[in-house]
Specification:
The complex is a heterodimer.
Chain A: H1 2-30, E1 43-45, E2 50-53, H2 58-61, H3 65-70, E3 73-83, E4 87-96, H4 99-109, E5 115-116, E6 122-125, E7 129-134, E8 137-143, H5 150-162
Antiparallel strand pairs in A: 1-3, 2-3, 3-4, 4-8, 5-6, 6-7, 7-8
Chain B: H1 4-12, H2 25-30, E1 51-57, H3 70-85, H4 90-97, E2 107-110, H5 123-135, E3 143-147, H6 150-156, E4 168-171, H7 172-175, H8 186-189, H9 199-204, E5 207-210, E6 213-217, E7 221-223, H10 241-244, H11 247-253, H12 255-260, E8 261-272, E9 284-285, E10 289-293, H13 296-313, H14 328-333, E11 347-351
Parallel strand pairs in B: 1-11, 2-3, 2-5, 3-4, 5-8, 6-8
Antiparallel strand pairs in B: 1-10, 6-7, 8-9, 8-10
The chains are: A alpha+beta, B alpha/beta.
Chain lengths: ~160, ~350
């Protein structure tokens, strides 16, 4: 009787651990980090979120898909935004199989003319774009125009994404 | 010169076209043509064994806020075509390029919008070409601006239009792809033998003018005239192995592409010199140029040199040193493919 009770307790513990791990994994992979319109001051989400997996990522970024696939990309999601009705930008969120994959891609974006910014696990900014990584996520935000407000607006948007990851 | 509204109106509207379209049919597409010798396939070379390539530049092409000056784009186009054909009047020059048969021929303009809004073929260029084609007698509805899909066309700034009374604009997502792959001598065409071609190319166009945008490419090194043809097939992802070599050359050897893509007006008005093929604004540069010609190998070689000069100027390594030289260019010129010339002594480069 005691043996059976312990057996069932052990099974319950194992099942619970597996369930928690699975739930944690699912939650990480299905998070929607795209801020809704107005959630970040001045920014409006202007299009539907599009998601690609490793097999069809080429439809979005053609040959660039190769480097993401070799780094272990699971999905790539993208959405368009507009700041104060005029400045257009796009957010790409790559969910990698792990932090190493995100780091690998992030490291290819580093350049001497990039500025370090306090985002996620590491972030860099150019005049019209920001790239940062947080855990298995690699985020790239690009504006289509350089204006006096672009850099700050992008940083604000990036923070909005980061808090949701 | 007309204002922008008149310019666009002229480029996009025209006489009503009642359904007549080129119907080459699959047999004409997949029949294997003898691979022409380098010397025989280009009509505008200045001397035997050399291909002419024109780089036309205008340092004032972009306005102070960075936007293209549409009037200057049209003038640049006219200068480029005049320099290439040796004919000053645009109407005459364009008639020299177009296939015989005039207004009933369907001319496709294959753009490249894959890079998205920031680095795609400029709509103003395609519309300027559409206007000149109409001046040369091509009916508006017989001009098709096309690419992979609606998204890529909209990235260039176009609106989808299938109305045959006007210049049409739509992607392979509308036309579909041939059911059968191009299984002609698979050893010759490698992975490209399995390519399923867009029906816009195979069934609708009599001639295609390529309108690539010059970009660095993370795999192939450079993407321009020949790689623009990746947008003609359903699964271009299957052609990226080995830095897209030999697939770029193999694909461009397929008869439907080789025989119909007869001219290139390469958009080097804006480019990315690193980080491509996507949009990396920190690596954006404005060569303010068009690169035109028939020989896509020579055009790609010329574009490659332009890109390398820019990279050297900003202190970046050569594509070779970066591990991604565009080897497909030499492959396209080799004895097996004979798609054109890649050696400087065989390229008559005209810079205006």
């Amino acid at each position: 009787m005691i043996f059976r009770s312990r057996h069932w307790m052990l099974a319950t513990v194992v099942i619970s651990v597996v369930a928690v791990a699975a739930l944690t994994g699912c939650k990480k992979k299905s998070v929607d980090a795209f801020p809704a319109s107005g959630a970040v001051a001045g920014w409006e989400k202007t299009g539907e979120t599009r998601t690609y997996d490793a097999k069809n990522l080429y439809q979005y970024i053609d040959g660039d898909a190769e480097q993401y696939i070799s780094a272990g990309v699971v999905t790539t999601s993208t959405a368009d935004y507009k700041y104060q009705g005029t400045l257009e930008a796009v957010i790409d969120i790559h969910t990698m199989s792990g932090p190493d994959g995100a780091r690998k891609i992030f490291d290819t974006s580093r350049a001497n003319d990039a500025k370090m910014v306090p985002l996620g696990d590491a972030g860099i900014a150019f005049a019209q774009s920001i790239v940062f990584r947080k855990g298995p996520y690699l985020v790239r935000i690009v504006a289509y125009e350089s204006t006096p407000v672009t850099a700050q607006a992008l940083l604000t948007l990036a923070h909005g994404v980061e808090t949701r990851l | 010169m007309k204002d922008r509204r008149d310019f666009l109106k002229t480029a996009l509207t025209g006489a009503v076209l009642l359904g007549s379209q080129s119907k080459l049919g699959l047999a004409g597409v997949t029949s294997h043509s003898a691979i022409p010798d380098h010397q025989d396939q280009f009509t505008h070379r200045t001397e035997p064994g050399r291909s002419r390539v024109v780089i036309a530049r205008d340092p004032a092409l972009h306005g102070p806020a960075g936007q293209l000056d549409e009037k200057r784009v049209l003038e640049l186009l006219d200068r480029a075509i005049a320099a290439y054909t040796g004919r000053e009047k645009p109407t005459e020059a364009w008639r020299h390029i177009l296939p015989q048969g005039g207004p009933d021929k369907v001319i496709g303009l294959k753009t490249n919008g894959l890079g998205g809004k920031g680095i795609s073929t400029h709509a103003v260029l395609a519309l300027a070409i559409a206007e000149r084609l109409q001046w040369a007698g091509i009916k508006a509805g017989n001009i098709i601006i096309w690419d992979r899909n609606a998204r890529d066309l909209e990235a260039c700034g176009f609106t989808i239009n299938t109305d045959p009374s006007r210049v049409r604009c739509f992607g392979s997502d509308v036309s579909g792809f041939e059911d059968q792959p191009v299984a002609v001598e698979p050893i010759t065409y490698g992975a490209a033998a399995n390519a399923r071609l867009s029906k816009i190319l195979t069934r609708q166009c009599d001639m295609v003018i390529g309108l690539p945008i010059l970009k660095d490419h993370s795999g192939a090194g450079v993407t321009f005239a020949m790689k623009n043809m990746y947008g003609v097939v359903q699964r271009p992802d299957q052609l990226h192995a080995g830095g897209c070599n030999p697939s770029v050359a193999d694909l461009n050897s397929i008869p439907a592409i080789r025989e119909k893509v007869r001219f290139t007006i390469g958009d080097a008005m804006t480019s990315v010199y690193d980080g491509g093929p996507g949009f990396h604004p920190e690596r954006l540069w404005q060569p303010n140029a068009l690169i035109v010609g028939e020989d896509r190998v020579a055009i790609d070689h010329t574009a490659w040199q332009l890109l390398e000069r820019k990279r050297a100027e900003v202190g970046m390594p050569t594509l070779e040193a970066a591990g991604r030289p565009p080897r497909y260019i030499a492959t396209a010129a080799d004895a097996e493919h004979k798609l054109g010339f890649n050696k400087p002594e065989h390229i008559n480069l005209v810079e205006i």
